[in-house]
Amino acid sequence: MIDPDYAELLQLQAAYAAAVDAGDWDTWAELFIDDCRYRLQPRENYDRGLPLATLAFESKGMLQDRAYGIRETLFHDPYYQRHVVGPPLVRRREAGRVHTETAYAVFRTKLSEPTIVFNVGRYLDEIVATPAGLRFAVRLAIYDSELIPNSIIYPI
Amino acid sequence: MTADPALPPAPEPPVEARGVDQGLDRGRIPFATYTDEALYRRELDRLFYRGHWCYVGLEAEVPAPGDFKRTQIGERSVLLTRDGDGALHVVENVCAHRGVAFCRERHGNRRTLVCPYHQWTYSLAGELQGVPFRRGLRRAGEVQGGMPADFRLEDHGLTRLEVATRGGAVFASFDHGVEPFEQFVGPAVLRYVDRLFNGRALRLLGYNRQRIPGNWKLMQENIKDPYHPGLLHTWFVTFGLWRADNAAQLIMDRHHRHAAMISTRGNAGAASEASQVASFKPQMTLADPRFLDIVHEPWWGEPTAVMVTLFPSVILQQQVNSVSTRQIVPVGPGVFDFVWTHFAFADDDDAMIQRRLRQANLFGPAGFVSADDGEVIELSQRAFATSPGGHTTVELGGRDVGDADHMITETLIRGMYRYWQQVMA
Question: Which residue of A has its CA nearest to B339?
Answer without folding.
Answer: A147
